[in-house]
Amino acid sequence: MCAEKILVTSALPYANGPIHLGHMVEYILTDIYCRFLRLTARDCIFCCADDTHGAPIEINARKLDISPEELIARYYSEHREDFERFHISFDSYYTTNSPENKAFSDLIFTRLKERGDIYKQVIELTFCPECKRFLPDRYVKGKCPKCGAEDQYGDNCEACNSTYNTTDLILPYCAICHSSPVRKESMHYFFSLSRYSILLKDWIIKNKNIQPEIRNYVLNWIESGLKDWDISRDEPYFGFKIAGEDTKYYYVWLDAPIGYMASCEHYCREKGLSFDDYWLNPQGSVRHFIGKDIIYFHFLFWPAMLMGSGFNLPDSIFVHGFLTIKGEKMSKSRGTFITARQYLDRYPASLLRFYYALNLTRSISDLDLDGQDFKEKINGELVGNISNLAYRSMTFLAKHFNSRLTVPASSDIVNTEQDKIRSIYNHYDSCHLRNAVKEILEIGDIGNKYFQDAEPWKNIKTDRVNTWRGLSLVIQMVRDLTVCLKPAIPDLCVEMEAQLGLKDLKWQDIGSSLEGHAIGQPRPLVQRIDAFDLIS
């Protein structure tokens, strides 16, 4: 039997704006998971892409007097640069406006149509006479028909999470020109999602990788009755035309998740790998990471499309919460909307990666970014614990023992450390990053206490051999901590490897002897910060 082939994806960022710190929660989370898999010798590829289609792209390009292709190219370049600076290790970062995505969209549409899962229906839509266009979901706003919340979009309510049609809105208005729209008929294509209710329910119940709170959400939706899905849009629209149609396009939510497949296919073709290993063979494992705002699409529409077209279903879809700033949603008016570039102009990427890892759990609860807490965690844990242990122990070794290690001392802390490392492995594997980092920091605390209690600055005068052995034990712990932290803060750990005189450490190197090894030049790993002043 061949080894498991793992494809990991993050949700595709929309090519109509900059990457911000809310986006980075997902990409840092997914990157840490992928780096852990690689570190533990798992066969993993990390694929993503810019989500490039839809009315917002077309409308924004028209406002800027450029083509949609120019607009998405601009954001593609910007997104790539931001991700690289945050050390997001995509194997493939592609675009949904690609020949591969068109081919897979047509293939899946055709297969579903041949199964009788796609049908045509004339429907009433929201039409703006002033703009002379049908208004897509995000360009008509009004009161939620379920809870009455004001200024809600035409597809779902952010207040009560209800989904509905644009024509269901109360007192709707055009988000482009603010005039009152009318209703107008149009022929659209529909996917018979309701036919998949039993299959989806069975898949949700049997999939043990789904977070319990998400399982309950989705099962409630299924029990309430699934509505068939409108998968077409009228021109003007930027996207792929439906085969045989001149004015009808695939709805962006049809071809966007197919972008996972297109990005994988593009990478496999370039590297001489097989797309089938991930999407068709039993040994393939597809693992998605998404935010809680797109649960409905990824747990219902997407797996139903895959079921009907004969591709592997995802083994896991890990859902995370939003980023809040001081307990509230990010807001430009409050000065709490922070782009990736604004952050990177002031602070190293590693600090945010560490802070996110220290706070992310398996829950879909929101992650809060508080400036004072950020400062305290960086200074107290990353600087005061990890960096302090590494620098003080290696500096002492360099000064008194010519930078060379000997046989480490025997101590009960070795067993304690190994127990914690086994636990850290399981936490990383289950995406409970907070627990993983918590135990890493506990190992650091143990190492710092051992060093302090050993008092090498005093005992070297009376027992040089045991001082050397105790110091060697601490530095082997520093090596182990470096391996454990590599998924979270890879750039700092590469620097730590250089100081240790080591390279390309893997999980299997944890616990191995460094007897006789010479370390490099010690330097403080990271500096304290005075404040986190991006939040006004």
Describe the structure.
- This protein has 536 residues and is an alpha/beta fold.
- The chain folds into 3 domains: 5-109 and 252-357, HUPs (Rossmann fold, 3-Layer(aba) Sandwich); 118-191, Methionyl-trna Synthetase, domain 2, CATH 2.170.220.10; 372-509, Isoleucyl-tRNA Synthetase, Domain 1, CATH 1.10.730.10.
- It has 17 helices and 17 strands.
- The strands form 5 sheets. A 5-stranded parallel β-sheet has the order 3-2-1-13-14, with helices on both faces.
- α4 (99-114) packs across α7 (252-271) and α5 runs antiparallel to α6.
- It is elongated.
Characterize this entry briefly.
The protein is α/β, with parallel strands linked by helices and 536 residues long. The protein has helices at residues 21-39, 55-64, 68-85, 99-114, 197-206, 212-224, 252-271, 276-279, 295-309, 340-344, 349-357, 371-400, 412-429, 433-454, 456-459, 464-485, 490-500, and strands at 5-10, 44-50, 92-95, 118-128, 133-134, 140-143, 152-153, 170-174, 182-191, 229-230, 232-234, 248-250, 284-291, 316-320, 323-325, 328-329, 367-369.
Radius of gyration: 26 Å
CATH architectural type of the largest domain: 3-Layer(aba) Sandwich
- The level of helicity is 40-55%
Strand content: 5-15%
> What are the segments in which pLDDT stays under 50 over at least 5 consecutive residues?
none
Number of self-contained structural domains: 3
Number of separate helices: 17
CATH topology of the largest domain: Rossmann fold
Oligomer: single chain
CATH-wise, what's the superfamily of the largest domain?
A: HUPs
Sheet with the most strands: spatial strand order = 3-2-1-13-14
Overall 3D shape: elongated
CATH class membership of the largest domain: Alpha Beta
Could you tell me the mean pLDDT? 96
